Amino acid sequence: MKLYEGNMYWPTTKKSIKYDSLNTDIDKDIAIIGAGMSGILCGYELAKRGHEVVLVEAEEIAKGSSSANTGLLQYSSDKMLYEFIDEIGKENAVLFYRMCHEAMKDLKTLSERLPERGDFVTRKSLYLASKIEDITKLKKEYKALLENDFPVEYIDSKALETDYGIKGTEALLTKEDAEVNPYKFILEISKEAVRLGLDIFENSKVLDIDKSDDCFIIKTKDGSIKAEKLVYATGYKASNYSEIKDGEINRTYALATEPISGDSWKDRCLIWETARPYFYARMTEDNRIILGGEDEEKDSITNSEEKLQKNTLKLLEKLTNLFPHIETKIEYSWNAVFGESDDGIPFIGQDTDDKDVYYCLGFGGNGTVYSMAGSKIIADLIEGKSNKYAHIVSLDRQG
């Protein structure tokens, strides 16, 4: 399954790190398959806790869907808190949002431990009502967030126009969100994880997995791994979707502009909206604007240059409508596939049939945040510890 197509921006910002391919037989406590954001975070967390861990990647580290990720990190989900409360009850809904908020803090702490922070910068997020009718939704969400102590402000139309130059609507302003260069971030975490004892092998496609005598034998072309526990962090490229209920794959579009010379918008905050699919925007370290959206219910990428150009021009037009003073051109554009679950919650936890198999699949628009939370949940489960969030994201969750 090809995960993206187009002219990618993030891989141009940092030289790749090369890891050896597996060409011998090794014995470890835990094997992780997949070296994107989920796999690297799981590997880092488990190595930090003192486990003997190996991570294998079929291609190159950070070159899967993570390099197509636009790097907006938010504690808010694509589904509003008040909607989750209606669907799964207040206790679990608030716990899920707390999980994401805690993961945001953990990502910040992790970035501060890295010699280079992967362009991680704490930001506020501006959540715009896409139409007048959606203002009611925003007010309900503001009430739900405020009552449960999440950092949020309500921005009325007058303040939105005065402070941000955006006319004719209202917004929520959430705090303690962030932006990141996902490609740089993964590479920097990988170096720290290796320092902690993680073994990483790339260009080592898993060809076969057998289990006998309570251990796995994972075979690649030139080597094998013996491990007691197995973690799938294969993202949207997972070959065993039969184990995952209610998941679907969709297509999205993104672009990076040329660096702009003038001002962008107040506080360089992250911007998104209540429409579904939604448009979103952020700045980069080198003063480009990243835009994304125009999602489609298609389970594969498009190779059509015409379609890519048409959809990314729509994104640029939406930016111009918001901020007429910004004049810029598209320099990079791509489309990618991403996974979503029917209930808006990622798939993280123990296999329903095999207690030694775990999944960290960050389905949804908040994948990096889910992966950070997932790395701690999986580490706790492997160690036999309780985790207050595990039941919400488990594969056999009810709802």
UniProtKB/TrEMBL annotation:
Matches recorded under InterPro entries: FAD-dep_OxRdtase, FAD/NAD-bd_sf
FAD dependent oxidoreductase domain: residues covered: 29-381
Coiled-coil positions: none
One Gene Ontology cellular component annotation held by this UniProt entry: cytoplasm
Superkingdom classification of source: Bacteria
Gene3D superfamilies linked to this entry: D-Amino Acid Oxidase, subunit A, domain 2, FAD/NAD(P)-binding domain
PANTHER family reported for this sequence: PUTATIBE OXIDOREDUCTASE, SARCOSINE DEHYDROGENASE-RELATED
Name used for this protein in its record: Glycine/D-amino acid oxidase
Protein species of origin: Acetoanaerobium noterae
Source lineage: Bacteria, Bacillati, Bacillota, Clostridia, Peptostreptococcales
